[in-house]
Amino acid sequence: xxxxxxxxxxxxxxxxxxxxxxxxxxxxxxxxxxxxxxxxxxxxxxxxxxxxxxxxxxxxxxxxxxxxxxxxxxxxxxxxxxxxxxxxxxxxxxxxxxxxxxxxxxxxxxxxxxxxxxxxxxxxxxxxxxxxxxxxxxxxxxxxxxxxxxxx
Amino acid sequence: xxxxxxxxxxxxxxxxxxxxxxxxxxxxxxxxxxxxxxxxxxxxxxxxxxxxxxxxxxxxxxxxxxxxxxxxxxxxxxxxxxxxxxxxxxxxxxxxxxxxxxxxxxxxxxxxxxxxxxxxxxxxxxxxxxxxxxxxxxxxxxxxxxxxxxxxxxxxxxxxxxxxxxxxxxxxxxxxxxxxxxxxxxxxxxxxxxxxxxxxxxxxxxxxxxxxxxxxxxxxxxxxxxxxxxxxxxxxxxxxxxxxxxxxxxxxxxxxxxxxxxxxxxxxxxxxxxxxxxxxxxxxxxxxxxxxxxxxxxxxxxxxxxxxxxxxxxxxxxxxxxxxxxxxxxxxxxxxxxxxxxxxxxxxxxxxxxxxxxxxxxxx
Lengths: 152, 364
Known about the structure:
The structure holds 2 protein chains of 2 kinds.
Chain A: E1 12-14, H1 33-40, E2 44-49, E3 71-76, E4 79-88, E5 102-109, E6 114-119, E7 130-137, E8 143-149
Parallel strand pairs in A: 1-7, 6-8
Antiparallel strand pairs in A: 2-3, 4-5, 4-7, 5-6, 7-8
Chain B: H1 2-13, E1 22-29, H2 35-41, E2 48-51, H3 59-71, E3 77-84, H4 121-137, H5 145-155, H6 169-174, E4 177-180, E5 182-183, E6 193-200, H7 202-205, E7 214-219, H8 253-258, E8 267-269, H9 276-284, H10 293-296, H11 315-318, H12 325-336, E9 349-353, E10 359-363
Parallel strand pairs in B: 1-2, 1-3, 8-9
Antiparallel strand pairs in B: 3-6, 4-5, 7-10, 9-10
């Protein structure tokens, strides 16, 4: 893990409504456990390929670009820009009913990958606007990634 | 439903079950019917069988597998069977819908679903790609209205279509958002589907009851880190790279192998789970310039009597979401000249082509 820059802990909020994550949490495997363990500790870590150098999303047993299995986990500040965003006007699961309408952003992180997260700021996301990753914690302790406007 | 579709297709072709020696199936829901069960329950005696995954986008794959089995002399007459009874289940994207568990795979669901972020149902990934595309090419909020309007114009002429009432651009803009920027009228209509298509060699087909429809050329699905089922390469949604996409257009293998160009296509049929997919297909296959499909489709160009009628049965948006099979049998009608009020004049060639890269060129 790289240590040449400071990595303050990610901001943390609780998912509204006190829901357990049982119905929404992903299958966590040895390939993705460092990512989710990291979020619980307030750190965003991403897989970096030691062969081609690509920093990708947390998925799979090998680099999603070149297929190399030589990967290490690299710390990220969670800073990025809004690559795209949507607003749900319908809840597909009861956990999100109280939030409708709610927005979700695709944020392109400084390190490269686009990650998806719920939008936490009151104003609409702005395309290419600067955002900060936030840890969103469910009532049972599961932590996922969300985003909000970056405050200078 | 499967039996009714098979019996109807056999009667249409003037064949019996004993003639069938190959089966390629895409049984969507209820799930769990393998080829051997189908053969037993439908009284088929097979020497070749294959089956695809249950959900959408595999209709060309099924037809291509059947054609390749015949080309390789593995079978003489192949039944392609597609059956989806989605009305028996909850809404797509909710618990209880077949395939809901796909959302929880490593890296999310097949359409970029990320349930803990509230990114649920196929529409989420489609909407993310749509906004990115609109942002890149400067599209206005009414950009997709001509698509929705044109497909409803087609469906108004199709007694089998689920939605037949015409609407205008203004009606479109009053339709509620489901997942912004996509409105209800940008979304396909869920229906039950049962379709059977019979394939055989050309020399045998000419002796059957109906005039044959020929497969001139085809190409398979695209996949990889820069492909996403709901977006062009380069949009960067569930794809690695963000770049300005330069489609192959007329250089797509389906055109090159048949020695034709997009101008030779009389009607285009495509997978329209959401209206932007029609733009992405028009651009990928060289009908409209990249990023300019919105201007290209204006003035009814893809509607009835347009220069390139698209999804003349009404497509998934208005006929109903058949995973491409409603379009497939509509192609057959058009090339037989039996599409009634929807008949495209002098229809010689019809193209099936999709956002996700596969294509079949059909001709009469």
